[in-house]
Structure formats: C-alpha cells, structure tokens
Amino acid sequence: MAEKMATRQAYGSTLAALGAKDENIVVLDADLSGSTMTKVFAKEFPERFFNVGIAEQNLYGIATGMALSGKTVFASTFAIFAAGRAFEIIRNSIGYTRANVKICATHAGVTVGEDGGSHQAIEDMALMRTIPGMTVINPSDGVSAGKLIEKAAAMHGPVYVRLGRAAVPIVYDEETKFEIGKAVTLREGSDYTIIATGIMVNEALNAADVLEKQGLSIRVIDMHTIKPVDEETIAKAAKETKGIVTAEEHTVIGGLGSCVAEVLAKKHPAPVEFIGIQDVFGQSGKPDELMKAYNLTADDIVLAVERLKNR
Amino acid sequence: MAMDYQALRKKANDIRIGIIKSVYSAGSGHPGGSLSAADILTVLYFKEMNIDPENPRMPGRDKFVLSKGHASPGIYSTLAERGFFPKEELLTFRKMGSKLQGHPDMKKVPGIEMSTGSLGQGFSAAVGMALANKLDKDPGRVYVLMGDGELQEGMVWEAFMSAAHFKLDNLTVIIDWNGLQIDGKNDDVMSVTPIDEKLKGFRWEVMTIDGHDLEEINYAFEKARECKGKPFAIIAKTVKGKGVSFMENESGWHGKAPNKEQFEQALAELEKLGGEL
What we know:
The complex is a heterodimer of chains A (311) and B (277).
Chain A: E1 4-5, H1 7-21, E2 25-29, H2 33-36, H3 39-44, E3 49-51, H4 56-68, E4 72-78, H5 79-85, H6 87-97, E5 101-106, H7 124-128, E6 135-137, H8 142-154, E7 159-162, E8 168-169, E9 184-187, E10 192-196, H9 200-213, E11 218-222, E12 225-227, H10 231-240, E13 244-251, H11 256-267, E14 272-277, H12 287-293, H13 298-309
Parallel strand pairs in A: 2-3, 2-4, 4-5, 5-7, 6-7, 10-11, 10-13, 13-14
Antiparallel strand pairs in A: 1-8, 6-12, 9-11
Chain B: H1 5-26, H2 32-48, E1 63-66, H3 72-82, H4 121-136, E2 142-147, H5 154-165, E3 171-177, E4 180-181, E5 184-185, H6 186-189, H7 195-201, E6 205-210, H8 214-226, E7 232-237, H9 260-276
Parallel strand pairs in B: 1-2, 2-3, 3-7, 6-7
Antiparallel strand pairs in B: 4-5
C-alpha cells in the first residue's frame, strides 16, 4: 500500500519551510488554522501569522491590503468559504488589483466527508477560473502540493490552490519537477487518455492498470493547473489517442472537464467522457464511501473508457 | 503642504468644480457623495497626509483608501488638484480608454492605493495596509473614507472588529455621514444609527465633527494621531451635494449627472463662491 498524506498536510510543512526562507511571507487564517494546517507556520512565526476570526470576507480583504503593501500573503480557510463566501472579495479586491495573495483553500470536494454537503466545495475551481489573471492549481498528492505551492510563492499575482482534507496516496517521488501550467504525463499510451486533476490522479492510475490488463494502452495526464490550462498537452492527447476521460472531484460544470472540452472544441474535437460530480450536492459519509456514491473511483473511470469505446 | 484655511477653502471649492465638470462631461457618475466629501479630501491631501505627487509610491507615505468608491469624482478631482495628473484629464472620466474609470482602479491612476467600488472592501484592504505597516514598523498612516450607507455591509463590521483587535492606531476611518443613500434616507432604508455607540462598542476611539468645517476636520486628524493603542473613527456630519444648492440633501443626486442647464447653474454657484473666498 502506497504511503498516504493529505495535501493540506504538505501545505502546512511547505509553508513553514517557505516562512523560514522568506521573511516577506505572512499567513492569514480565519479560525481554522488547526485544520488548514497554517498552525505549523503560526507556531514557528507567530509575529507573521494573523488570525482574523470567523470572517472570510475580511480575511481576503486584509490579505489584499497586506499584499498591496508588498507582502507575499497566504490566506487560508475551507474552500467553500474562500471560493464561495468570499468570491466577490477575491474577484474585486484580489483579482482586479492583481494582488499577490495565495488563496490556499483546504477541505475541497466531497472527501471532506462527515461534515456533509454544506461544507463540500464542489464548484470552487469553476468559480476561481472565471477571474481574469487568477492561477488555479489542484495538486494530486503531498509531493506535488508542496512543490506547486513553492512555485506559487515564487510567482507574483493571485493563485488559488485547492487542497484536500483526506490522506491520499503519494503519486510522485521527490525528484519530480513541476511547472505551473504544464501538465505531467504520468503514463504514455496510444488508445485512450485519462486527464485527471487533484486526488483523481491516483484513481486514474489505478484505472489505467485495469485497462492495460485488458490490452488497452492508456495515457494518464495530471492536469494540476486548471488555469492556465495546458492546451498543448490536451490537444496532443486528442490527436494521438481515440478519446479522453476527464476525472475531477468537482462538479462537471465549469471544472477540468469543461476546460478540456473548451480546448478540444477550439483545437481538436474528440469524444470526451466526464467523471465528476453530476450537478448534485454532497452529503455526509466516509471519504471512500462518498467517492463510490458519486462515481469517482477507478472503476468508474474504467467504465467511462468502455463508454468511449462504444461511441 | 502649508496652506492657510482660506486657501484650503478655495481648494475645496476648486475640487467641487472639478467634480461637477467631470460628472457633466461623463453624463453619469456620483456627484452627491463626492461633494459631501470634498472638504475632508481637501484637508487630507493638502494638509494632513505625507504624500508626493511626483513619487506616488514613495516608501513610508501615508495612504488613503476611498472605500466609498463611487465618490470617484471627488478623489479624481482632489488628485488632479494635488498634481497627480493633469486637471484636463477629469473630462475623460468614465469614457472609453480613460484611466478615470467609473470606480477607482489603482492599476490605472497614480495616487489611488486600492481599487474600490464594491462597498466594504476598501476598508478591509486598508486594515491590511495598516497591519502591514505595523509589522514593518513603517511610519505611514492609513486613512479610509467610508459612506454611512456603506456601514450596512456586513463585511465592514468584520473589519471594524479586526482593526481594534490588532490595535491599529495607525488607521483612521472617516465616515461621510450625509444621511442619504440611493433609495432615500439611511434611517428609512436601513438604520445605521447610533454610529458612535456602535463603534465605541467595537473598541474604536470616536469623534463626531462637522465634516465641512476644515478646522474641525484638521483637529480630528490631530486627535487621531495622538490616539494610541486603538483605531480612530471620525464621524463627519456632512450635506450630500454640498455646495450646489439644488443638489444639497437630495438623494436623487447620489448617482446622476446634471443636464446642461443644471451644469451651468452649478458651475455659476461654485464660481461665485470661489470668487468670494
């Protein structure tokens, strides 16, 4: 069994390491530092950590002001409150001014689990990618989360980083290099392509194992950056394979699947099957139960490839 | 800038003329709340703040955030008078390609510290600026102008709470209390009073003044600078549309441009007043 780690865990340790290297980094949280893992930074650099209380609009307002004063600001809460409740502040204060704020939102998707549908952000990437100039990153495991957050810190401008609550298998080794906006092709293949993002990358790899036993050659792509999306890699997959399955722990409306479809419609039309949450809210349950309930497993990806074959 | 009060009064009148000209030229915009704030802006930009039009991003400068961003004609006219950009540009207000957007865009206008217009957000960003200054031991002070109607936004109270919690005595909020908003009187739409007791309850130092008396405005800023350990709020009682007879105390002039006849009358009134000063 592969080693597991929650992407929020990687965020906590990466942030503390970045804080040690760069005194210009400040971290803000809205009473969830124990869950978002900003507590790791807070413990080491209390003078650069600000808890604004349960006030997400003000969280991103203050983050804007500090960023416009020259700080590199990491501001965290749960994805539902960041992308949801504070959307218009993120749009008008952070986006419109191109403030250097890293919105690291944890507890995204249905794998939040027992807290239920009210707390499971399934639309955050769709919302965030509509904001001009916003970079949207959805790491698949602890290794890529840490490395992509380092890249986000190094670039100037607003970034939304989607992080999860649940421990998920480590996909990458520490040597892997990441670049914002450049997808990682984890497995080459010539029959079909699975483009996955976030924790669905591991499901995609498992699905590819099953499909390869059936004699199919499957390409697996980790689309860790939703915006700017890697159009070239998507178009190449459409040209070189017979169809694409997209896989995301997010509504199929406006997320990865939509991004891929938009690119294909422009560059190379191809059949696509969309694995994701099908326009419904989440509910309470264990993460793995919810993944099954919303058809987000490797088995569901295998079935989607079957559907592609029959199209 | 060393200016006597008579010169400041003249400057405030010039700012009002710029407001009327820019709104008339645009054919839209918000004259009422710009005219009510003109005296406050005058004291800030010509007496109180440490700023340099030649170097708008000067380190250690004081910062002003117009949280009631719809009063853009007010801040644009003030910045033009202060030399941040030529006064002729006021006539491009709200036009295609102009740096003078309907609501202030900090990426376009020198001297604008924060893009505002969506109420409540400027104040919150100003709290962040004051907090950053504290962290950096930057001597710059942060000033925010808010509308009284703006106090109806929930986010504003998050920001009031946090500024007191972080003991931001480098932050001064001025509330342009003209009593009117788009749909009518604040008291009829959604009561915001008592403002002073609310703010004291939020652990702010509070002073109520006549927002058209330049000496009182200046005195309030002096008190704000002396105040230690907590942020300072100035409740400035003002008249919406101040300086133009037919606009005064009329909520209808919140967001409407004068027609030609009204423009000429407004200009004549202000020029007459300027001549008397």
